[in-house]
Amino acid sequence: MENLMFSLNATVPVFLVMVIGYLLKNFKVMDESFVKTLNKFNYNITLPLLLFQDIAGSDFASVWDTSYVLFCFLCTLFCITSTWIITAKVYHKKDLIGEFVQASYRSSAAVLGIAFIQNIYGNAGMAPLMIIGTVPLYNVAAVIILSFTTPSAGEASIAGDGTTGSSSDSLYRRIAVKKSVKGIFTNPIIIGILAGMLVSALGISFPVIVNKTINYFAVLATPLALIGLGAGFEGKKALAMLKPTLICSFIKLGLWPVLFLPLAVFMGFTAEKLVAILIMLASPTTVSCYIMAKNMKHEGILTSSVVVTTTLLSSVTLTFWLYLLKSMGLI
To answer: Ramachandran region of residue 31, left (φ > 0), alpha (ψ -120 to 50) or beta?
Structure first.
């Protein structure tokens, strides 16, 4: 019962705040425009400052673990490549392969992940190391996969500039890849992590006024992120494309934890590191998948369905995984 209460205390408050965000949106306390602004503000300002604060205030050099970062990177790479290869062979709807693959691996590592870890440990814990090992790969892989699986409107068609459809698609892919690479180096969360690492390495101490100002923004990160996720929730879309949605959701919430959590334990990762790995493997598909899919000329219906379904089911599955790890004395 103690282990169960630990797991419920870690997950239920997170999802309750999301439910409140959903209700606030439906009761017209906030509209779509406000939610978009809220998510943008949170992603660009409060989350980076939260990560910066946690890292800058600790001895980051002492907690850096190359093997841990590589583990996160290689696990993510395996999830991406194996799903893409298998799906390309067995899935008949070729125009949905890109959406299926992206939704099956891309976790809400930064937003929901930090919320969970902070709820358990009181700070971001090992989330920054996990983010370094996964988020850049998330973005690059998403652009490559979605660009090469974009539904074609007819390769023989003539583009408005006189080029063939296939030439236009090729140019679009190159532009998309360049944009993704640039996006990684300008990603505010990555910048916040790197800036915190630099401050920690140099031993820089800020005046109390600066620290308090940063803290005022940092403490907003988790509640704003959860309210934004809940407000953007669209339950009706979960009914679209039910079969591929359920398969993709099972892969995201069940298959990856079963495969890699035992390996993580075998490698000696416990406590905060293991929780961060759990978030990497088993947290819901991030909302940014839908935005990416739409921007890359995909319909986005399958992606939105997986986002909704994994968000709903993860309230149960994440509680189960935490309960299991806690019962085994690993966290």
So the answer is: beta
How big is the CA angle at 283 (ends 300 and 104), to the nearest 5 degrees? 40
Q: What is the fold of 2-327?
A: Na+/H+ antiporter like fold (1.20.1530)
Rg of the chain over Cα atoms, rounded to whole angstroms, equals 20
Which pLDDT does position 150 carry in this prediction? 74
Q: For residue 49, what are its two tokens?
A: 């400052």
Please name the residue ranges forming H helices in 27-65: 32-41, 47-56, 60-63
Question: For 120-133, b where at least 16 C-beta lie within 10 A, e where not — what string?
Answer: bbebbbbbbbbbbb
Domain ranges of the chain: 2-327
pLDDT at 89: 87
Strand partners, 285: 107
Q: What percent of the chain has pLDDT over 70?
A: 83
Which DSSP string corresponds to 115-133? HHHHHHHSS-TTHHHHHHH
